Amino acid sequence: MKRFYVILVLLTLSVTALAQNGRSLYNKYSDLPGMEAVYISPAMFRMMGKIPDVEFQDGNVNFGPVIKSMSGFYLLNATDPKVGADLYADVKKFIDKGEYELLMEAKENGEVARIYSVGDEKTVTSLVMLAQEGSETAFISIDGQMDREELENILAQAAAE
């Protein structure tokens, strides 16, 4: 039983450390010139979760159930090529540690977008998107307790549009 608690604590700490990377990258890059940055706090997601039967839709894709399960959102969009290259390298460092699983990759005319996740069979605790198009680099990190099946359905619907 004691071993179970030790493993549980280690798993919790590893998820917290991964979530910290999105926050750390946001803190490192958000104030730099040539950077667009957006942060949505856990308090905002809790407030959204208290709105009954709200639907957040883009076309035919309803993001409501997943949005309500989020606890942090960090977006960085680098328009400066040097800053973008540094951001890309930093994101790749924590992705390449092996905790993240590649969910999707799309390439078209020099543009590359990848979506990664951390979690188990039922829950995604962190979702990361990294994209490059020309001289721009975009990074999105979403933390929460997102239902994997709902998230996969949303990604499939979005890809179909």
Report on the architecture of this protein.
This protein has one domain (2-160). The protein is globular. It is α+β, with helices and mostly antiparallel strands. Mean pLDDT is 78; it is low at 1-20. It has a six-stranded antiparallel sheet with strand order 1-4-8-7-6-5. The chain has helices at residues 2-29, 42-49, 64-67, 81-95, 148-160, and strands at 35-40, 57-58, 61-62, 70-78, 101-108, 111-119, 123-133, 136-147. It has five helices and eight strands.
Backbone CA Rg: 16 Å
Percentage beta strand: 35-45%
* Largest sheet composition: 6 strands, antiparallel
Mean pLDDT value: 78
Shape: globular
Helix/strand order, N-terminal first? HEHEEHEHEEEEH
Helix count equals 5
Low-confidence stretches: 1-20
* Secondary structure: number of strands: 8
Spatial order of the strands forming the largest sheet: 1-4-8-7-6-5
Query: Separation of termini?
Result: 49 Å
Q: What is the secondary structure topology, with strand pairs?
A:
Blueprint: H1 2-29, E1 35-40, H2 42-49, E2 57-58, E3 61-62, H3 64-67, E4 70-78, H4 81-95, E5 101-108, E6 111-119, E7 123-133, E8 136-147, H5 148-160
Antiparallel strand pairs: 1-4, 2-3, 4-8, 5-6, 6-7, 7-8
Task: Summarize the entry for a quick read.
By secondary structure, this protein is α+β, with helices and mostly antiparallel strands.
Quick tags:
161 residues; alpha+beta; 6-stranded antiparallel sheet; two-stranded antiparallel ribbon; 8 strands; globular
